[in-house]
Amino acid sequence: MGVPRNELPDWNDIQIMVAQLHRKPLMEDIPVGTNLVIGPNARKPLELKIPLFVSDMSFGALSEEAKTAMALDAEQAGTGICSGEGGMLPDEQAANSRYFYELASAQFGYNEESLKKVQAFHFKGGQGAKTGTGGLRTHTDFIKAMALGADGVALANSAMQAIGCVGARICNTNNCPAGVATQKPELRKRLDVAVAAKKLNTYLESTVELMQVMARACGHNHLNQFEQRDLAAWKRNIAKLAGIEHSGFDPER
Predict the structure, then answer these.
(1) What is the DSSP letter of 7?
(2) Cα angle vertex 54, ends 50, 60, to 5°?
């Protein structure tokens, strides 16, 4: 929002430090757990099979087909999807048994009765993506985020790309050629729900497999074991900002 991108902290400035001697890496045949329990102290905790889920993207901003496809895949992958601020889309909610219902400050589409149909409640306290309200989607390095303290990662832009988004950058025109960010019937027909769901499932499975590979490399047998000591930064200011190890060499000095 007006700050030159090259002056902002970058995920590339943070490096993953794999295990070597003091802590040894695990062999490739060692199982690595992936589940995430949300609300472990709640009366009815919600368990996701993987620490990734589909983030808040409103129906209206996305087509019904896009939302339903992502809900279907999330269900197949054993994870959830969040309604976003546009209210609950019935077909989307029915397709997923780990559904997050969002309550944001503007309460768009919010209905107390809908709480009876969902498995989790998602409070949106604020948004740092851009000034004012509304949505922007970014992709993060999942492992680094979890090592810095995240329990799980919500996917938005990457999930859209997986189901067919071609990055046309005309979302605001209602003319999305892939049928993802449009409400025009003739364009929505271009998105095959079953095919799109399968593509997203492939993406999630591949991503989790790679995360398991990195977990073994760091000596962990569960994805929830990533921690700050798995990271280091070349730049002293980034290390201080993230609370992680400084590599001892600062290329800017």
Answers:
(1) G
(2) 165
How far apart are the C-alpha atoms of 51 and 57, rounded to whole Å? 18
Read off the tokens for 111: 């209905």
Strand, coil or helix: 96: coil
Candidates 3.40.50.720, 3.60.40.10, 3.20.20.70, 3.30.470.20; CATH matching 24-246: 3.20.20.70
DSSP per-residue codes, 148-196: TT-S-EEESHHHHHHHT----S-GGGT--TTSSS---HHHHTTS-HHHH
> How far apart, in whole angstroms, are the C-alpha atoms of residue 169 and residue 106?
26
In this prediction the pTM is 0.88
CB atoms within 10 A of CB 237: 13
Which tokens go with 119? 């498995």
Mind listing the pLDDT tens digit for each residue in 124-145?
776 654 433 344 338 799 999 9
The four Cα atoms 229, 233, 239, 244 give a dihedral, to 10 degrees, of 0
Burial of 43 from C-beta contacts in 10 A (0-12 / 13-18 / 19+): exposed
- Give the tokens for residue 231: 């990271």
| Contacts with 49 (C-beta within 8 Å, 6 or more apart), sequence order | 34, 35, 77, 78, 79
pLDDT in tens, 21-42: 888 999 999 999 999 999 999 9
